[in-house]
Amino acid sequence: MKSRIFALGMALMAITPNIRPAAAAIPNMIPQPDSVTPGEGSFTVTAATQVLCAGKQADCAWVAKYFTGLLKRSRGLQLSAGTGEQSGAISLRLSAGMGPEAYRLDIAPGGATVTASTRVGLLYGAVSLWQLLTQNNAAASSIEIAGMHITDAPRFGMRGLMVDSARHFESAKFIKSFIDTMVWHKLNVFHWHLVDDQGWRIEIKKYPKLTKVGAWRTPDEAGLKDIDPATGHPRPYGGFYTQKDVREIVAYAKARGITIIPEIEMPGHATSAIFAYPELGSGTAPIGVETGWGVFPQLYNVDDKTFTFLENVLTEVMGLFPGSYIHIGGDEAIKDYWKSSPKIQAQMKALGIADEKALQGYFTARIEKFLSAHHRRLIGWDEILEGGIPASASITSWRGLDGGIAAARSGHDAVLSPEKPLYFDWRQITGAGEAPGAGRVNMLREVYDFNPSLDALTPEEQRHIVGVQANTWTEYLTQEELVANAVFPRAAALAELAWSAAPKDWDGFMARMPAQYGRYRAMDIPHSEAAMKVKVESRYEAGRGAVTLSNQTSFGEIHYTLDGALPTALSPLYSAPLTVPLPAVVTAAAFREGHILSFPTIARVDLASLYRRDNQDMKFCDGRGAAVLDDAPPSGPRAVFQVNAVHPCWIWEKADLNGVSTITAAVGQVTASRKPGPMLAPSTPDGELEVHLDTCEGERIAVLPLAPAVKNDAITTLQAALAPRAGVHDVCFIFTRSKPDPIWAISWVQLGPPARP
């Protein structure tokens, strides 16, 4: 049954409808163009339509080939490219007098013409034409587009995405695919986080141990069982990019109008380098490349030999990355080792440096002087402001907007990248079945609503806000598809605020998004549809199921069925909570103007499901945590645990315990990534899952020994009797343990449902 519904659902979702936006003159394009004027008639593209450059220009020919490839992949329509001019063609023209990324696009019955002064402007115009031709993603032998005139140019010169390849290594193939997807959003800066405590990811020929040693770390608990037959030892976890890899990726990005800014962290986040070359450190040497998450004390020392090392590294980095900016990190530099080092304290005294923040300022200034001598600009996270920075330095403001404001007022350029709402490793939504990610949430609407024009700045100061950037840290994004899923579609909202100067219109943006989802599907880009997907919530009520339907954005209208059939625009319209007989299958989806917006949600509502809770539907007892992908089994589906690593404890709010006599829990283990809080002492050597009534200090009503689960890295199902209790109560679940690693986590909990009429 499930496979049939899935197949029908995929067939249904294969075609994205041409949904008219709120403003009829604005086609389904992301980001919204600066100006769209309706024209006369229409133009039909068929396999006979040619894509022509006015002359034999290599840049134009490259764009023509790229455009025809996009259309072939997305609509199955193969066009030929050539040179010359003729009626009924798509013409690509390079003409002086326009901005570096600006373009014009004219659609008329006699053809389509893209005009720009640069290769990247021509590319962006071609991407816009491709979007006009992909208002849906069904295979087509002909596509008609309305006549119109578009003039377009970006709001900001720097429109960026950062990917952290240090915590988890992504393949060169993935990085190239990611760069292509950036192009389709008219994003032009790829900030590449290549170095951190957990790995050094770029080959430096003068210092081979950086990748021979620093690129690899001890695998997690499950990985320890993956033995390399050649060595008899567990396979180390990691990887790195050779200089050949980097040159290919840089060239790939450059061809697509994207500048790569490499980040080489200093003075902190340096464990991987210091483990490879301990003489670079300023305190106790690390015993390995870091395997956990957090902020660690390893800092480079400040002697001349270390600066020589850093300058040699940066020399090779500059030889690989031709862009003007080099990012040095500079964030979260814990100064404890500097404070406790007699040698460093003596250096500070000799240099007349008052404190450790000023010492970081000295460190930054020395690196900036070196970069400037090589005609490069230093950029770092906003912490570098605290010790003072040279006049030419720029910052990436991540701790809110204060850093960007302070930098702009001081005459420094700044890129706005506040964690709220531009950290894309934060989850897009919570709930059962959602993807892993950091503990907090940045919704699509929050990204769209961010305003990079700061009222606190004068117009002159605002000119120092040179761009916006979203960051994707990968502590909890262990697989490449999870990285893409976290970024898209939030990158569409980022693109809109970074490119489009037009007034914001959330409903208009959302009306244009179904076509963008269709492009993601057609181009096989992993992405989240959480913003439009229907959430089904249910509870037991007088022998029936009380069902509530919603979606995160409240966009469109929800239609549903109760017989397992896929909903259509003619299915019942949801307007109030439903009461359904048990069992029932609720299938629901959001629609707009009669067209489906996202893949349908299918939920079985029966007595068992009403007495079951996924870990992501329970709340933490204390603080917040993260949604972590299980590290086992080695292949196949894995559980996602919402867990607070410091205090792994959950509360099922308002559980109906009437007649309940048993409890079943699916539990698993994850490697400890942070220092734990106080641990509850176990009663048995392997520990237990305790169940408490009302509060975590309340009556213990069940105990599930963990012994059966200890040797299983994947999910283990435990069952125990539950002391009968009447009424509706909060129920607390907490693990006892004698050691901090591993961390135990709940996947789901099932209360033995009572017999109900």
Description:
- This protein is α/β, with parallel strands linked by helices.
- It has four domains: 2-8 and 530-606, Immunoglobulin-like; 35-152, Chitobiase, domain 2 (2-Layer Sandwich), CATH 3.30.379.10; 158-500, Glycosidases (TIM Barrel, Alpha-Beta Barrel), CATH 3.20.20; 612-751, Galactose-binding domain-like (Jelly Rolls), CATH 2.60.120.
- It is 25% helix and 28% strand.
- It has 19 helices and 41 strands.
- The strands form eleven sheets. An eight-stranded parallel sheet has the order 16-9-8-23-20-19-18-17. Strands 1-7-5-6-4-2-3 form a seven-stranded mixed sheet, with helices on one face.
- A hairpin with a 2-residue loop joins strand 24 and strand 25.
Instruction: Indicate the CATH class of the largest domain.
Output: Alpha Beta
CATH topology of the largest domain: TIM Barrel
- The structure class reads alpha/beta
Instruction: State the end-to-end distance.
Output: 26 Å
Largest sheet: 8 strands, parallel
Strand order of the largest sheet: 16-9-8-23-20-19-18-17
Low-confidence stretches: 1-15, 19-24
Q: Write down how many β-strands occur, each being a DSSP E stretch of 2 or more residues.
A: 41
The total number of structural domains is 4
Sum up the overall morphology in one term: globular
Count of DSSP helices? 19
CATH H level of the largest domain: which superfamily? Glycosidases
What proportion strand?
25-35%
Rounded mean pLDDT score: 92
Radius of gyration: 28 Å
Mind telling me which CATH architecture of the largest domain this is?
Alpha-Beta Barrel
The level of helicity is 25-40%
